[in-house]
Structures are given as C-alpha cells and as structure tokens.
Amino acid sequence: MGFSGIARRLVPLGLLGMLLAAAPPAWSQDAPTTEAMVAALSGLEAPSDLDVAVLRQQAAERIKKRADLVALKRPPLSRELNRLPHIDLDIQFNPDSPVIRPDSYRTIGRLADALTTPALTSLTFLIVGRSDANGKRDSNMALSQRRAEAVRDALVTTFKLSSKRILAVGLGEEQLVDANNPKAAINQQSMVVTLREIAPVAGGTSVKPPEASAKKSSRKGVR
Amino acid sequence: MFRAVFLALLATVVAAWSTVSPMVSPAMAAETASFENSATLLAESCGKDIEANCLGVSLDAPRLRECLSRNADSISPQCRTDYIKAFDAIQKRIAARSAVWRACDRDKQKICADLQGKPGETIACLLKAPARSLGWGCNQALGQAGYR
C-alpha cells in the first residue's frame, strides 16, 4: 500500500514530465518566444524623445541627397534605435506587398502577448520596417513603411492594442542589420524598439491629474 | 503495524492532493488562450486557404473573418471550424483582460493606490500581492486574463 502510494505520487510527476518534454516541439521555431521578447524590450534606462516624423524625414533626405550612396558599410540612420531596448523579428510579407503571411501569425501573436505583459503595458513602442539593398532605395523605404504599418495594424485591429502605444516607421535600407552584407535577406528583419512610458491615463475613479500637469506630460511625451 | 498503515494513509492523501491540486487553480480560473496560440491555430488551419482565397488580406481580424466567411464554400472544413474558434479565443482574451479593471477596482484602490494611471504597474502590483489579500472576483479575473 505504501508502495502504491508512492507510485501514485509519482504519476503526476511523470505526466508533468511528459508535458514538459512534449511542449518544445510545438513551439519549435526560430522566432524568439514571448518571454525572450519581453526580456529584450524591458529595461529602458532613459526615455527616448525620438521623433518618428523627424526620423522619416531624415531617411527621405538621405536618399534624396544620394548620401551614403554605397550600401556596403552604410551607417545606420539612427544609432539611438540600436541603443534602445529592441528585438529583431523575422516577419514574412507577400512579395512587394505589406500583407503579412500566415507563416508569421505566430510571431505577431507572440509580440501581442509580449506587449500586453504587465512589464511592458505602460510603454510605447516603435515598429521599424527595413529592407535589404536590392532594388531602388526610395521604393525600399516606401515598402518598409507600409510593412511597419501592417505590423502595427495587426496589433491594433486584431489584438486591440492601443494605437497610441505603437508607432511605425519604414527606414528601408537606411538601417541595415548587416551592413557588411547589405543584399542579404537578414536586412529585411523588422525591428521593435522600446521608446518611453505612455503618458499616465487620466481616467480611473480617483486621482485625476490637474489639467496643467496633464498638458505638460503629453507635450514632453514622458514624465 | 499501526504506524505503517498510518504512513500509507498519509502517503495516499498526499498523492491524492498532489494529483488534484495542480488541476484546481487553472480549472477555477479557466484561463483564456494566449494570442500566440490563437494566431497559430488560425495560421495552421487556414494558412493555405488564406493564401488561396484572401491573398490581399493581412492579419486584420475583421477583414480576414469577412473574407473567410465569404469563401466558406472553398475553404477546408478544418479552417471553417477553426477560424471561428481562433477569432473567438482572441476576443475572449481581450475581454478577460479588460474585465480585470472592473473586477479588481476595489483591490487596486486598496493595495495599489499610488500607481494610478500606470496600467502595467497596477497589474504587476496586484499579481505581487498575496492572492488571499485580493477579492475572489479579482483573483478569478487575473486568472482568466492569463496573468497568473
């Protein structure tokens, strides 16, 4: 009886072991897990006042002026993006289109899980679309802009993330992942960057911040 | 002899408890599916159907849903049942997450009053508090939302 008691005690452990052993194949894909995304995107040391419109304009000007014409070893348009907490994601789109392929739904689902985790819910993020250095520089930038917006739209329309928390910018081949191999496919990876805290919500049942402080904080973007 | 029987009984009780207890908490909370699981179900059951019938439609729940229902006759039976499941599961999680604010309103003001306006920190504060210090409804809501 004692033995059968021990045996019965072991059964749940065995089941648990089987579950744990069975779990990895179901998730096995190169894409980072939700936990890895949360880890990469947390730990913002200082808020960034990066202005998306300015960034877009800088990219457009660089292309127009034909600055850094050779793609090989082209410096990133914004070093700050690489300094902020960020993660590179392989998101598959239809060719020459911003439509997200079903192969990447899981990755977007994980991203939605990550961005709605308590550790990240009070933060604002920037989706950066990028491309390799094949084709025309300006059309690469335009397509990557539409693709970044598609990722943002998926988070907003399907998983109901607040559109205020997610910004999108396309930097084409101005922010290469691997500047030593500008034509390599890895340069098409999208990037998610942690920018700053959201302005505190004024709603709720108690403590409504006075009008003046609310204005101030929204102008600065951060408190 | 008496001692042996007692020990055996004790072992049985412990065994029974350890079998049941891991099942109790999730069963009570009925956690909603993660976005990842729902998105994966949609992709695995409907990926081919989407590429064949909804080529220009991105991951946009209302538009995808509309396209799949419009093409209900041409998509696979698996997709026909699973796309509804997947979108419903996504809706349930969204609803469960927003329900936390209502269900935990009193707990929030009692325990996390100084975090007004910071949603993430408020949830983290509720999760850090011992479950017995929160109301039943709040505990349920946190479980359903997949926060614990």
Give the N-to-C terminal Cα separation of chain A: 65 Å
Count of structural domains of chain A: 1
CATH topology of chain A: 60s Ribosomal Protein L30, Chain: A
Sequence stretches where pLDDT stays below 50 over 5 or more residues of chain B: 13-27
Outline the biggest β-sheet of chain B.
Answer: none
Helix and strand run of chain A:
HHHHEHEHEEH
Return residue spans of chain A where pLDDT drops below 50 for at least 5 consecutive residues. 1-29, 203-223
The tally of strands of chain A reads 4
The average pLDDT score of chain A comes to 84
How is this fold's topology laid out?
The complex is a heterodimer of chains A (223) and B (148).
Chain A: H1 2-27, H2 34-41, H3 52-64, H4 79-83, E1 86-89, H5 105-115, E2 123-129, H6 137-158, E3 166-170, E4 190-197, H7 211-220
Parallel strand pairs in A: 2-3
Antiparallel strand pairs in A: 1-4, 2-4
Helix pairs in contact in A: 2-5
Chain B: H1 2-29, H2 35-53, H3 61-70, H4 77-103, H5 105-111, H6 119-128, H7 136-144
